[in-house]
């Protein structure tokens, strides 16, 4: 299977390395990459290494590169699967949405880490369309989406409550220790946990997208704009300090209620008996309520390495049954 990568930043490059190291054992090869200014069709390992050393947006300048990007470029790439590591607008889903539509319409597999186009594609198709794999969009290093789509086949999911944004969890943990918000944000950026501008995480834009994706995976047509926002991390700056001493923890959570097809995000307090009470650093966690039991899932939700590895996992899955997802219908 020949793989093209749209979005050749940190995650895209980490995936390219994984494909060079492990792709052959899974029948995968890196065919091409696209960035914001150009593209490269890889005809040798040397050209891949050259692209990996190029600056961001520099694919057009490598020996196997050329100017031009956008969905129209896909037609000449000779690929079987498209990986989306683009950074798309939460409002329009572009540029990732255009790439994904073009690839799916051409019968290709799409493996995505980019949340806005996935949330909008799910809404357009009334659930996951054939050929779309997207577990890297939510709890990137922990297979929540696969659990909901595969592991719980035939089970009735009532609700999902989760801490699904590592940046906000890391910052809230520092706030509860008495660290001022500005210093907490600076620490998160310095460690690479947060983007240089983490406002999308702190205002709930990222969390609302994830809540929408989880809801739609479970058969509820909840778009990102339908998610109820009940507060932001900024609201916690004044009252988070001291909560630990009072035996409480503050989390920025998403809640999806399947029966009512409702999704909401907001700040929630958790006592020592809650599964979400002890969640250090930037860890993610989800509590899945079933009609007869509860499942707790915890693990990394972000990071270049775990996201790239999860994309590789979806590529391996996509090769089963001629590229059709080995999943049951989303509606439970």
Automatic annotation (TrEMBL):
<dbReference type="InterPro" id="IPR036291">
    <property type="entry name" value="NAD(P)-bd_dom_sf"/>
</dbReference>
<feature type="domain" description="Homoserine dehydrogenase catalytic">
    <location>
        <begin position="143"/>
        <end position="316"/>
    </location>
</feature>
<dbReference type="Pfam" id="PF00742">
    <property type="entry name" value="Homoserine_dh"/>
</dbReference>
<dbReference type="InterPro" id="IPR019811">
    <property type="entry name" value="HDH_CS"/>
</dbReference>
<keyword id="KW-0521">NADP</keyword>
<feature type="binding site">
    <location>
        <position position="115"/>
    </location>
    <ligand>
        <name>NADPH</name>
    </ligand>
</feature>
<keyword id="KW-0560">Oxidoreductase</keyword>
<dbReference type="InterPro" id="IPR022697">
    <property type="entry name" value="HDH_short"/>
</dbReference>
<feature type="binding site">
    <location>
        <begin position="7"/>
        <end position="12"/>
    </location>
    <ligand>
        <name>NADP(+)</name>
    </ligand>
</feature>
<feature type="active site" description="Proton donor">
    <location>
        <position position="210"/>
    </location>
</feature>
<protein>
    <recommendedName>
        <fullName>homoserine dehydrogenase</fullName>
        <ecNumber>1.1.1.3</ecNumber>
    </recommendedName>
</protein>
<dbReference type="InterPro" id="IPR001342">
    <property type="entry name" value="HDH_cat"/>
</dbReference>
<feature type="binding site">
    <location>
        <position position="195"/>
    </location>
    <ligand>
        <name>L-homoserine</name>
    </ligand>
</feature>
<dbReference type="GO" id="GO:0009088">
    <property type="term" value="P:threonine biosynthetic process"/>
</dbReference>
<dbReference type="GO" id="GO:0004412">
    <property type="term" value="F:homoserine dehydrogenase activity"/>
</dbReference>
<comment type="similarity">
    <text>Belongs to the homoserine dehydrogenase family.</text>
</comment>
């Amino acid at each position: 299977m020949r793989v093209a990568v749209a979005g050749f930043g940190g995650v895209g490059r980490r995936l390219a390395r994984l494909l060079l190291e492990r792709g052959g054992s899974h029948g995968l090869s890196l065919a091409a990459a696209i960035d914001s200014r150009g593209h490269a069709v890889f005809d040798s390992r040397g050209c891949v290494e050259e692209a990996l050393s190029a600056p961001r947006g520099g694919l057009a300048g490598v020996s196997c590169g050329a100017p031009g990007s956008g969905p129209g470029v896909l037609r000449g790439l000779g690929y079987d699967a498209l990986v989306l590591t683009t950074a798309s607008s939460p409002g329009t889903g572009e540029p990732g949405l255009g790439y994904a539509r073009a690839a799916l319409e051409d019968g290709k597999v799409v493996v995505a880490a980019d949340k806005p186009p996935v949330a909008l594609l799910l809404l357009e198709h009334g659930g996951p369309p054939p050929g779309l794999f997207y577990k890297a969009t939510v709890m990137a290093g922990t297979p929540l989406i696969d659990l909901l789509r595969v592991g719980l086949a035939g089970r009735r999911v009532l609700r999902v409550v989760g801490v699904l944004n590592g940046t906000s969890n890391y910052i809230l943990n520092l706030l509860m220790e008495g660290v001022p918000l500005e210093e907490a944000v600076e620490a998160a950026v310095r460690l690479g946990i947060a983007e240089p501008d983490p406002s999308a995480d702190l205002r709930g834009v990222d969390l609302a997208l994830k809540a929408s994706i989880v809801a739609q995976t479970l058969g509820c047509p909840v778009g990102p704009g339908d998610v109820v926002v009940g507060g932001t991390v900024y609201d916690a700056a004044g009252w988070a300090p001291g909560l630990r001493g009072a035996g409480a923890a503050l989390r920025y959570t998403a809640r999806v209620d399947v029966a009512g097809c409702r999704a909401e995000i907001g700040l929630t307090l958790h006592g020592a008996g809650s599964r979400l009470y002890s969640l250090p650093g930037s860890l993610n966690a989800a509590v899945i309520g079933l009609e007869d039991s509860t499942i707790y899932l915890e693990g990394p939700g972000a990071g270049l390495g775990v996201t790239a590895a999860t994309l590789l996992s979806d590529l391996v899955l996509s090769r089963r049954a001629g590229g059709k997802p080995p999943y049951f219908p989303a509606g439970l």
